[in-house]
Structure formats: structure tokens, C-alpha cells
Amino acid sequence: MAPNPEQLVTVSRAALEPAGAGAAIERWTLRSGPVEVSVLTLGATLHGVRIPDRSGAVAQVLLSTDDLGQILGPARHFGATVGRYANRIADSVITLDGVAHQLAPTGGGVTLHGGPDGFANRIWAAEEVTDQSADQARAGVRLHLHSPDGDQGFPGALDVWVSYLLSPAGELAIEYRAVTTRPTVINLTNHAYLNLAGEGSGDVLGHLLTLDADEYTPVDQRQIPYGPYEPVAGTPFDFRSARPIGEAIHQDHPQLAGPGGYDHNWVLRPRRQDGPPVRAALLQDPVSGRGVEVLTTEPGLQVYTANTFQGAVRGASGVAYGPYAGVALETQHHPDSPHHPGYPSTELRPGQEFHSVTILRFAWDFPTSHMG
């Protein structure tokens, strides 16, 4: 069973419940044939993706909960748009044009995902949009957030737009744009956790993962890159051809001991940020036949295998999420780039526009020969 490019895309919205200061959270739903995508205005969150398996059985393939208390608590990053700077900045400080800016710390000597009150906590404005510029007409929702000058310590007033656009063939595009009033840094990503067997169905250690990356950024005990890129060849980080996520995750390797699995940034093969999205990863579930191909304009991909999950979040299935319950494939610039001049720059200046595109190309008919 494969996507049908002739299907129509429908968009609808519904209010959830008040969430402080009288603000209402909206859920936007995009549908095309058997594919259903839901987006929350809280955190500009990709809240759900429902797709069939090779036999036609539909399942939610994102780790997700409808419990607002959990969404505002331990699940607040599940599927959220994280920023102003996704991933980590060492010592909670950046320097721009010789001026140091102290950022709001999140603990452990870093600022993670934009600070303790990052974009994942905000309610974004939303509107329905269509896009006729692609090969297939797409429809979806565009969300907007204004981040004031000094927000979490970051300089410059920032306006950010995130669009989720679904194509008739079941391809989901996530497009980011931003402008600033002062020099600043920006690194936006989506923090969804995937389990292609269906959320709550167990771990993802048997999923096959392919990464279009020959190098990665090794990290210190704070998960901060400490030097130049290192080759993946001959290490547990070599996913240049499809291999099970769990094949080497417990190997005796110094980079795996601290995080208890993968929580690292892979350096993707060269691509232009102003060019078309290029493949970064392919994730496949051999049992269901479901797969997702990730394409992006970004230079890096953070792979996090939910190593530290201890059941704090109970999913829509009623199952508490334990270690390796899902995998996050976060397209991004490299962690701590402001402190590494050799990394692709994350600086954004007045008159410039930040633009990034990530595409999730879902399928559910991978033949056995493609499954390793």
C-alpha cells in the first residue's frame, strides 16, 4: 500500500482547553488519504502522525499524549519547535561583535533548547496556508511567534514562522523562517520522537537506521562538542548503511557510556542551506513496513534514542514510555556552534532571513529487500 499523489489534503482546527491567561490551545489536523498529522499551537508542536502499515492498519507513530498536564510537564519537548537555539550552548553565554550575552541557564553548565522558558512553552498564532510552488499542491498550517529582545538572554527581537505542509502523497514539509532586529544566533528544530511500530509498542532498537553522514561531533560530559569532527568508520556511530539502532548501542565506547545510548550530532554530507532539501536519514521498521525518509537543508542531525526515559510520560496507548521507546531525528545546526568558528554559522543579522526546510517522507510498503 503506497501513497496516492492524487488525494486531496484537508485542514481543520479545534480548540482544546484554556491554558493560562485565558489563552486557548488549538489542534490543527491535516489529512491526506490514510495519513493524518496533528499540530498544536502550544510550542508549534507536531503532536501526531498516523499512518498505515503494509497491511493497512493505522497507528500513531509519534510518542504523544493528550494529557495537558504531561504536555506542559515531562512531555513539553515531545514534537515541539525548540529554540531560540536548539540543543546546547556551553556556559550559557554567547559573544557577538565582541559583546558577551548571558543566557538563561538550564543546568549542568549549559543552556539547552533556548532556555528554561524556550519556544516549546509558548502559544503560537496560527493560520491555514496552501503552497502551490511544490511539485504537488500542499496545504497546512503556518504558526508565528514574536520573541522580544532579551528573551532568555538572547539579543534581538525575533519573529519566527513555522509551517507544516502536507502533500497529497503523504509528505510532510516543516519550513522555518525568522528575522531579527539585532545580531543574534538561531537554531530551530522539531523534537518529535518516532516509533514506526506504533507508540507504546515497545522499543525502537530493532528499527533500521541509515544516516547520510561520514562524521559526527564527539562530546564531553555536558554533551558539548569538544573538538573537530571524528569519522564514524569503525565505531558504533557508523550508520552509513542500514543497521539496527540497537546493534551497537551498548558497546563499550566512551561516547556511549555517559548518555547511555545515542544523543549525538551527526555531520551530514555537504548541502546548501539555500538549496533543496537533501536526504539525511532513513528510518525503517522491518515488521510493519513503515518508514520515513528525512530530507533537510540543515548541516547536522541530532539522534537521541530516549535513553533516560523512565516512564514519566504515559502515551495515548496508556503505556508508560521507558528507555528507547522512540528516536528523535532532529535536523539542526551543530550544538554549541557559537563557540566553534569552524562549524557552520548560526548567526542571524538584521536584513537577513533565516530559512530552513525539513521534509518527512512517509511510506508503508518497503519491500523486504530494502529492510536489511
Radius of gyration: 19 Å
Which range best describes the helical content: under 10%, 10-25%, 25-40%, 40-55%, 55-70% or over 70%? under 10%
- What is the number of independent domains? 1
CATH class, please?
Answer: Mainly Beta
Count up the helices.
2
Give me the CATH fold name: Beta-galactosidase, Chain A, domain 5
Query: Per the principal axes of the C-alpha atoms, what is the gross shape?
Result: globular
Overall pLDDT = 93
Point out poorly predicted stretches: 368-372
Judging by the overall fold, what is the CATH architecture? Distorted Sandwich
Q: What oligomeric arrangement do these chains adopt?
A: single chain
Proportion of strand residues: 35-45%
Q: Report the strand count.
A: 28
Structural category: mainly beta
Distance between the termini: 20 Å
Please describe the biggest sheet, giving its number of strands, its sense, and whether it closes into a barrel.
Answer: 9 strands, antiparallel
Order the strands across the largest sheet as they lie in space. Answer: 11-12-13-14-28-24-23-18-21
* SSE sequence, one letter per element: EEEEEHEEEEEEEEEEEEEEEEHEEEEEEE
Protein name: Aldose 1-epimerase
Region (Disordered): 330-349
Keywords: Carbohydrate metabolism, Isomerase
Catalytic activity: alpha-D-glucose = beta-D-glucose
